[in-house]
DNA sequence: AAAATTTAGCAACAGCGTTGCGTAATAGGG
DNA sequence: CCCTATTACGCAACGCTGTTGCTAAATTTT
């Protein structure tokens, strides 16, 4: 967790991040666009643009002649000026993506991981995969780091994997530290679902409201974007949404409680009733809406994406029924726009965010 | 919603708010205390303290002679330099409190409201109550405003009551506007539970982590403190936690779904089984923990506070059982430290926060 | 060709935290 | 009694931020 004191360097980072967010979501933009979006004065925007241009992050791309008056200079993000690699570590696979400064996914590879893989085996797989990727476009000096989205529980602030569910060799592994040493790159570690929701927020820009990413993939998890930032909770353990009870008298779950969303959903799947499984998930999603009042719900996960329309329809129907009752609520439900890459891409974007996103300003 | 651009005035407000938070949580403090708590340089802290002293918000309170060296100047908040009045509007009662800059509740009054009261009736009750309170200590010039914590749904940003549950005359009432006109005071409107969690956060200071306030009072609601700020959701409708399904095959709830926490809890109460009702609530609380990973859970509400120990025991037991399974999670469960005043007090603190709290810095 | 309109940017400015360094106030030792 | 070490405080200069005032440039309209 980067601690930033509230000094002028924070102002610089903050306003630069605002302009970068505009550049990421609009293909091209001009000074007036930024003025409108941020409330800064035109002169201040000019200064920010000058700084970003010096750093090679944006460049001018012609002028716009709308009618009367001096033409406005049009700018664009230099997407290929910075890259990050994102990794999605699942139980049996390692997915790697290469993401540029604009959030575009350039390469995506999946390779199997050994059953019950060890930290060393993961590092080797990462090493091979990253070398292959870095070789493609000659990224020397433009690669900002590696983001890892992984099964929890883990400790995001300290880069520790506490006890990854279902993996025997992952107790209190200082993954960030050993990966940085082994790979020679800055490494950022986060829960898979939190990385995923970051990807969705990146693609939607600063106007993205409170949102959740629902991931069904050997378990059910949720990633949250609340108040303009990822919500990780007190111990980086937010999102164990599959282990919320929806049936007080339901079957016993592996977590020890009865009638968790995950076990009820699982039984429906085993019974072959995908439609019912989807409706159960939808009940859980509406529970989230009641609790958190979200503007967006994004669905993803390998298991869910095997029946995308069934799940999308069930969740949309349940959410809309709920909104109808209230009369004025509105929540958009969608499948992940990045498909199966969403976790890995989000992990990469978190790395880019550390450099070009809103600086953290933790009130101690 | 106050929009603040990231200019130097933000820095001033931010760092002043940090110092004020220190002053609120520590009875006395000195320069080195703030340096340690904020990471600012001693010189910067001196400047902030000078500004706050000029405004009459803090003052020196002697010196500390710990041993060798020049004595350190000790400061304290001037608690009686600013006040705010907080109102808790419930279905049948209006509670008013007077809160000073340190967060201390000075007066607390409860008066009945007519059944199905109208906006005019509420305004009259507010007017009478505020006059009585303002007369007590001659608050001329020191009263910063009125905060109202009320049943939802409402629109916090625009000060509208959309459709207060169970009150017929409250559809799209511009309460903030008409109250400001009627009372001649700045007015801040928020959901009751959100005001409540603000009070808890105030009393605990800047180190207060992610938290929820659970309120059982003719319904079950939740207020959330996430990432150092109140979480209101996309439509100020977060916290309808009583309307999350915990029993898929349960009885039909007024909200139209089946097996909501609220209806299951209500049935247990009606059957006279308080202990079971408390355990049902505890299931809901653990659901929240799984979803949001909270550091604190605070219990309040008129109905809950009729059996405080029963609820506290049940929730504590459930939370601790959950933590034991994980092995490294920890969540503190407590009854509201302000008792029945918590909602009104929090509403008042929100008013003070607008002046002396962390300035908002909404991206876009 | 002149006027109107829109955009861009130079220059001076106020205000923030930071840095460098001098000063005040105390305790302890010779 | 004096000197030194120690701790706390603050003036002054500085670098940097966004802001303000104003001028210049580039275009269309009259």
Kindly describe this structure:
The structure is a homodimer of 364-residue chains. Chain A has 364 residues and is an alpha/beta fold. Chain A has 3 domains: 8-77, Winged helix-like DNA-binding domain superfamily/Winged helix DNA-binding domain (Arc Repressor Mutant, subunit A, Orthogonal Bundle); 81-196 and 342-356, Nucleotidyltransferase, domain 5 (2-Layer Sandwich), CATH 3.30.420; 208-337, Nucleotidyltransferase, domain 5 (2-Layer Sandwich). The first copy, chain A, has 10 helices and 16 strands. A 5-stranded mixed β-sheet of chain A has the order 6-5-4-7-11, sandwiched between helices. A 5-stranded mixed β-sheet of chain A has the order 14-13-12-15-16, sandwiched between helices. Chain A has a 3-stranded antiparallel β-sheet with strand order 1-3-2. The longest helix of chain A is centred in the middle third of the chain and has 19 residues, at 119-137. The first copy, chain A, is globular. The termini of chain A are close together. The mean pLDDT of chain A is 92. At the A-B interface, helix 1, strand 13, helix 8 and helix 9 of A face helix 1, strand 13, helix 8 and helix 9 of B. The structure holds a DNA duplex (30 and 30 nucleotides).
